[in-house]
Amino acid sequence: METINLLQDKKIAIVGGGPGGLTLARLLQLKGANVKVYERDFNNEARVQGAIVDLHFESGLKVMEDAGLMEAFKANYMPGADKFRLVDKNAKILADEHEQSSDESFGDEHFRPEIDRGALRNILIAGLLPDTVVWDSQFEHMVQVNNIWELQFKNGTTATADLVIGAEGYRSKIRPYVTDIKALYSGATIIQGEIDDPEKECPEIYALVNKGNLIAMGSGKTIAAQPRGDGGLTYYASSLYPEDWIKTSGIDFNDSEKVYTYLVNYYEGWDPIFFTLFKACSHFVPRPLNYFPLDQHWEAKPNLTLIGDAAHLMPPSGEGVNTAMLDALDLSECLTSGGFQNIEAAIAAYENQMQLRAKLLGQEALEEIKDFASPSEESIKKLIKQFTPIGLSKE
Ligand SMILES: Cc1cc2nc3c(=O)[nH]c(=O)nc-3n(C[C@H](O)[C@H](O)[C@H](O)COP(=O)(O)OP(=O)(O)OC[C@H]3O[C@@H](n4cnc5c(N)ncnc54)[C@H](O)[C@@H]3O)c2cc1C
């Protein structure tokens, strides 16, 4: 039987150059498709939010392999950054993977190597044809004329495409063209802080982080800290808050002194070493952790779909980047396998797989986030038990 090339002579617009969108562009270009990625960042130098991400054997790493980017990944990952250390509010170490010998490596299903988000982005971009990413293209809206999408960007430029994929994260402006299902609040909020030179500005806690994943838990609060690839440090102070707390708290999150004062009060009774972390930070971002309903479903569109957080935002559980990359793999395979009569059927098959996976992972993420953000003594004991020689998952 003759296979059908659904993408022949088709222009594809991927909106959003995060891990999902860039991976999809790479995979489609390997199949000869005509793809552009429209990214709102001004250029490649714009800072990528967040610290490191660990790729998993059955998802992120598998996709890197399929995308032919594994060697580049191995040259750029951060050996040792996958180790976890759990401490209590007195900074006393409760469990420590740094103390455990491990010979895990690539090919081992438990090995979850960490990479800086910026490094991952650079690898994915280097794998694309020149000028695939169109920077400074913040999508605003689009209209369909004779089955062709006309996209409008904030800087006044426009583009046309036969097929549009929304990959611009959970505040996606493409999503409303697919579904009107809105995000819900998980109950947990994090205050994210960035420190550019932690070795100098908060050396004690820098040593405690030990270039790995530090989790400090106690009294219904958590602080998680991770290294960045550039020597900086990212941390997340998390707890349970009402949905509109960021507005009603009265805290001006642009005023780092005010946030510092709030955090020192909120973490009263914790070892002062944690306050040095708050003090060294000049830039805080409050993030309510939202999610899209687990049972969401919509009718597949003939020339439009979503991947990654735009499709299935869930509370952080160490799966978001991995899942966005798996979405990219599934969608690229459905569109290029030759097994579907038309693009709509390929999109429908992809969306079924994607929604099923997101439902399972989202359920786990939701069950775990409150315990993570606001742990009980019982859940801390459970977490200690999870520290085994084969590694602790981020969940
Ligand atoms: C605190 C925190 C910690 C996390 N830790 C982990 C972790 O350890 N491991 C993990 O796997 N996941 C983690 N996640 C989840 C992970 O960050 C996301 O699931 C993942 O980044 C989603 O990838 P994406 O490509 O779908 O979207 P994004 O990474 O959000 O990328 C979207 C891209 O689209 C661009 N964009 C946005 N709007 C527009 C627009 N209008 N027009 C054009 N471009 C636009 C953005 O600039 C960005 O480049 C964490 C999330 C949070 C909040």
TrEMBL record:
Keywords, comma-separated and alphabetical: Cytoplasm, FAD, Flavoprotein, Monooxygenase, NADP, Nucleotide-binding, Oxidoreductase
Domain of life: Bacteria
Chief site of localization: cytoplasm
Any GO molecular function: monooxygenase activity
Family note: Belongs to the aromatic-ring hydroxylase family. TetX subfamily.
Organism: Pedobacter cryoconitis
Binding positions for NADPH per the UniProt entry: 47
Reported function: An FAD-requiring monooxygenase active on some tetracycline antibiotic derivatives, which leads to their inactivation. Hydroxylates carbon 11a of tetracycline and some analogs.
Domain notes: Consists of an N-terminal FAD-binding domain with a Rossman fold and a C-terminal substrate-binding domain.
Localisation: Cytoplasm
EC number, UniProt record: 1.14.13.-
Domain FAD-binding: from-to ranges: 11-79, 303-337
GO biological process: response to antibiotic
Catalytic activity: a tetracycline + NADPH + O2 + H(+) = an 11a-hydroxytetracycline + NADP(+) + H2O
Residues bound to FAD: 54, 117, 309
Cofactor(s) the record lists: FAD
Name assigned to this protein: Flavin-dependent monooxygenase
Assembly behavior: Monomer.
SUPFAM superfamilies (UniProt xref): FAD/NAD(P)-binding domain
InterPro entries per the UniProt record, alphabetical: FAD-bd, FAD/NAD-bd_sf, TetX_monooxygenase
